[in-house]
Amino acid sequence: MPAQDIEHNFGLDLARFLAIAMVVVDHYAVVFLSMAGVATPIVVVMGGFFGVELFFVLSGFLIGRLLFRIVETDPTAHGWLVFMARRWLRTLPLYLGWLLVLAVVLPTPEHVGAHLLRYATLTQNLAWSMPADKWFNESWSLAVEEWFYILFSVTLIGTAAITRGTRMVWPVILAFLVIPPVLRMLRPAHGAADPDIFFNEHVYHIVLYRLDAIAYGVALAKLHRQGSGVFRHPWLMLGAGVALTAAFWEQDSYGVWLPLSRMVYLHLQLIAVAVGLCLLLAASLRLPAFPAPLAWVVKTGARISYGAYMMNLGILSFVVWRAGQLGLGLAFQVPVCVALILVLPYLSQRFFETPFMRLRPRQTRPPAPTDDEYGARQHA
Q: How much is the average pLDDT of 107-113?
């Protein structure tokens, strides 16, 4: 599939839409159902986990395709700087702007200056746990993505520049797939009373332990660039992906089939879910567009997904906090939160994020050769 088709592929838009829908439904259901005295179904809670993991795989797939073109055409410091400038102008303006908004509208955390510095430098969870107060807690995943962009891109482009070729692409990808899970498994858990709490706070949300989540998407992008047969059998990939993700969704919800200790299962789950989501993403590339009204909803949701992810917990926290002060109940809080999570990301995408994206430098280089063309040139 040509690169230009990938950038506006309906299947990828649907993946973004489903990912943000699962995350927002999880967050809002947990809060509002608990306020109503109702336990949130575990399948809904698990939807939030799968949504975040889908974002990671999708991000790796798209970033990988960009990096492979740079490696093949401009593996230089200039090429790397342009790539990072484009990434930062896409992600950091909204992140830093929303960080300032939260500092103004929400109760400020203790030691606010040091707190904001950690968040502004994306070091809040680099090799340690997120702050215990959970302020701007959803930012953990952006830190994972930003550090992956830096570490993976400099490693990939650097090795390509040194070796003057693409033969080190797969070794670099494999290093990022292998090292983080090894570090996770070496993380001591002695005396952990609750494996889920320990894993969530001291493993799952830490950057250095989660870089492989995005590397799976990069591996999928490399297979796509090589014309792998994986992409020629979408129905097979769809079935395998659904079976794998559904099995782990069911296992985590009801514990029905894997006779493993909880800690071993949690480590295995991250790998299996990433593979399953890669299979689903491979199948989605051949998905035809929905009829016009539904297609518009999906594409709009995909466009505002980044803003919705950054803002959803902040909106929820602010509305619940202020409504509690004013004595307003769920009949006020739910529709206000739903309206704000639809309107604010849309306004942000149109009037704040897009102007910054227009400032991005062009990655102007000749069209990238395919892997076969590159090999032919090397042996000519």
A: 83
